[in-house]
Amino acid sequence: MENLIHNPYLFKALAAYPYDLEETMEALNYALSYDDQNVQALCLLGKVYANDLNEYELAKSCFEKAMASNLENPSIYLDYLYTLIRNEDLKEAQKLLDFAMKIKGVDKVYLMLIQGQLFEVQKRFKEALVQFKKAKKSALNNHFKRFVNDEISRVKEKLGAKKKRKPKKKKRAKKSSL
Q: What is the reported pTM?
């Protein structure tokens, strides 16, 4: 049962992350012993496993438990998507992204950014650019717009490098000198 107010250990874990992993993990263990279906605690544990310990399967398990507990909680999806992409579960990431776009309260603009990054990982650079431009148009702050501009620049460089490959020169038939 989700009850954030009565679970002070979750707040301790959130306050400690990412600066004190030992404190974070201790507080998460207490929070989850109090409520083993706490979505926020499961998501933070998944984030620690993915970002700090590179334990993607354990992270996925945490995010799946969080989804089983409350599918409509918007805090699940962003970190779970990054975990799937880093673990190269790209088809699963696309399915989750499509589903997350329908969840009320999920940051849709950030999902557009993640869609662009997913396309980039798949080397679908033109589609990535389209997504990044959509995200930029929908941005609500300048910091995010600058970040998206950097994403666009990086992909354009990749596209430029792809186009700059020189085509193989055709061999010319040598004229026989007589």
A: 0.85
